[in-house]
Design goal:
This protein is an alpha/beta fold and 355 residues long. It folds into 2 domains: 145 residues, Rossmann fold, CATH 3.40.50.1970; 187 residues, Dehydroquinate synthase-like - alpha domain (Dehydroquinate synthase-like, alpha domain, Up-down Bundle). It is built from 13 helices and 8 strands. Helix 9 packs across helix 13. The structure holds fe (ii) ion (FE2). Fe (ii) ion binds next to helix 5.
């Protein structure tokens, strides 16, 4: 064996009701005047966290938006400075957590994250920001939250469908972590457990959205999958989704949900060990059939056609995928990428061609 493992410095508190420990956790970080960050939709939740702090020392900024636009970040920076904030508390999904990271990057303030989705970005040192319509992604420990509180009660209002999409998005990180160029035994254990936890919990959430048990297990899986994303590099699936989303303006979560089983089938011959672990986590005969079946159970869209991808775009997408350079277990070529995209466009079953 030969590998490198780097643990990310973060503290994780897991358990129902633990959001109430936020002020004590902040105090342990030396902080008493947080700026609490949310989207406009989750302002009530942000206010509720603020009310846990004594003497109205917490302020709320509730303008977080998707893709972390720079104009929102600069407004929030002014508020953080104006209120003398000594810490940042993100309450929400990717938008709130993204904004807190953007502020931490510029101010060095410590962060606590209270996630309300299963996306996992609260445990990654990754930040994506947009300015003048351009998205820039960076990886730096400066944006990693110091502490995360996983309180299942905060996820109970996430609609079942969004829960499924958010969980699948997280699962894609664990799947790619298993065949990452820098995969290591410890990340792989987390990846397999993360896939298994989400695969079992997501259908239960769909059947019973009020199940705190299922949501708690999904949250556990989300944490593991997010940690995988924070630790090792992503591969072909993320490149394909990035190209499809950017070129044809396809919805991010749907694109991921449709493509994952197809990309896994594409990698099959080049990453047999990862395939066995994914299959085992899903309790399926093989990885791609298991992922495809899970998508069907979760009622996610089945074809690129139904989410608005033009058929004539397939060739261009294949070209763009090949233009990018990144590590991947199988070296992609135009014909095979095209064939995979064609199957995904039609909503056909995923199919490995090297077996
Ligand atoms: Fe991702």
């Amino acid at each position: 064996m030969r590998f490198e493992f780097r643990a990310l410095p973060a503290r994780v508190l897991f358990g129902a009701g633990r959001r109430r420990e936020t002020p004590e956790l902040a105090r342990q970080l030396g902080c008493t005047r947080p700026l609490i960050i949310s989207t406009p939709e989750q302002k009530d939740l942000a206010d509720a966290i603020a009310s846990l702090f004594s003497e109205a020392r917490a302020h709320v900024f509730s303008e977080a938006a998707m893709h972390t636009p720079w104009n929102v970040t600069s407004r929030a920076l002014a508020v953080a400075q104006g209120t003398g904030a000594d810490s940042l508390i993100a309450v929400g999904g990717g938008s709130a957590i993204g904004l807190a990271k953007a502020l931490a990057l510029r101010t060095g303030l410590p962060q606590i994250a209270l996630p309300t989705t299963y996306a996992g970005s609260e445990v990654t040192p990754i930040i994506g920001e947009t300015q003048d319509g351009e998205k820039r992604t960076r990886r730096t420990l400066d944006v990693l939250p110091e502490a995360v509180i996983y309180d299942v009660d905060l996820t109970l209002t996430l609609p079942a469908r969004l829960s499924a999409m958010s969980g699948l998005n997280a699962m894609a990180h664990a799947v790619e972590a298993l065949y990452a160029v820098d995969a290591n035994p410890v990340t792989s254990i987390m990846a397999e457990q993360g896939i298994a936890a989400l695969a079992a919990a997501l259908p239960e959430i769909l059947a019973n959205p009020a199940s705190r048990d299922a949501r708690s297990r999904a949250q556990y899986g989300a944490w593991l999958c997010g940690t995988c994303l924070g630790s090792v590099g992503m591969a072909l699936h993320h490149k394909v989704c990035h190209v499809l989303g950017g070129t044809f303006d396809l919805p991010h979560a749907d694109t991921h949900a449709i493509m994952l089983a197809h990309v896994v089938a594409y990698q099959a011959g080049a990453a047999p060990h990862a395939m066995r672990r994914i299959a085992r986590a899903l309790g399926a005969d093989d990885a791609w059939t298991g992922l495809h079946a899970l998508g069907t159970r979760l009622h996610v869209p089945r074809s690129l056609a139904e989410i608005g991808m033009p058929h004539e775009g397939i060739g261009r997408a294949a070209e763009l995928v090949l233009r990018e350079t990144y590590a991947n277990p199988r070296t992609p070529d135009h014909d095979s990428i095209r064939a995979m995209l064609e199957r995904a466009w039609r909503g056909a079953a995923p199919q490995p061609d090297a077996l």
